[in-house]
Amino acid sequence: MSNVIEVLLKKDIKTLGNRGEVVKVSKGYARNYLFPQKLALLPTKEGLLELEREKKRSVRSEVEMVSNLKELSSKIESASCTIEVKANEEGILFGSVAPQVIIDALTKENVVGIKEEMIKLETPIKELGVYRVKIELNPEISATCRLWVVEEAEPKAPRAEH
Predict the structure, then answer these.
(1) Cα 77 to Cα 133: distance, rounded to the nearest angstrom
(2) Which of 57, 79, 121, 157 is the S-S candidate for 109 at Cβ 3.0 to 4.6 Å?
(3) Continuous segment of H or E residues that includes residue 100
(4) Contacts for 86 with CB less than 8 Å, ≥ 6 apart
(5) Which residues contact 21 (CB under 8 A, 6 or more apart)?
(6) Domains in the chain, start-ordered, CATH in brackets?
(7) Secondary structure percentages of the chain, helix, strand, coil, to 5
(8) pLDDT the model gives residue 107
(9) C-beta atoms surrounding 106 within 10 Å
(10) What is the pLDDT of residues 97-122, one digit of tens each?
């Protein structure tokens, strides 16, 4: 009795092959790892149909995700954020504008879903001025938002009542 079985891969596995390929593996490897992890199934008609349905679902969700990212990209492009900071007379900030501050400013403009690692600053923002900040939503989709870094308005002292 052979200890080898053919399986249909549901995902790419570096050492075995690519999704959709039929490969030979040991029965133990298939039974104890590939099947429980849902990485492979038996190459039956039902298995091939299931793989095809999964591919279609995956393509649909990918298209939906790209559509959502493009919509978010256009929101970022049209947003212009103002960040108030403390600065000295020369316009040098006490500190710098952190990515989380940029995210908070975008959130006030109803742009949500941005993570710190998506913000690509060429150099730290340490002076007052207008900046263009690149936001990389995924490797193919990025957007640039305008950022006004202005001096914080000093609060007016309350007037004494007589």
Answers:
(1) 10
(2) 79
(3) helix 99-108
(4) 93, 94, 151, 152
(5) 8, 9
(6) 4-67 (3.40.5.10), 70-151 (3.10.430.100)
(7) 35, 30, 35
(8) 92
(9) 22
(10) 999 999 999 999 888 889 999 999 98
- Among 28-32, 57-61, 111-115, the range scoring the smallest mean pLDDT is 57-61
Strand pairing class (142-151; 80-85): parallel
Structure tokens at 129: 């001025």
- Predicted TM-score (pTM) of the model is 0.61
The residue with tokens 């900030």 is 93
The tokens of 120 are what? 């690509």
Which pair of tokens denotes residue 19? Answer: 């999704």
Tell me the pLDDT tens digit for each residue of 4-16.
999 989 888 888 9
What number of other Cβ atoms are within 10 A of residue 9's Cβ? 21
135: tokens are: 């936001």
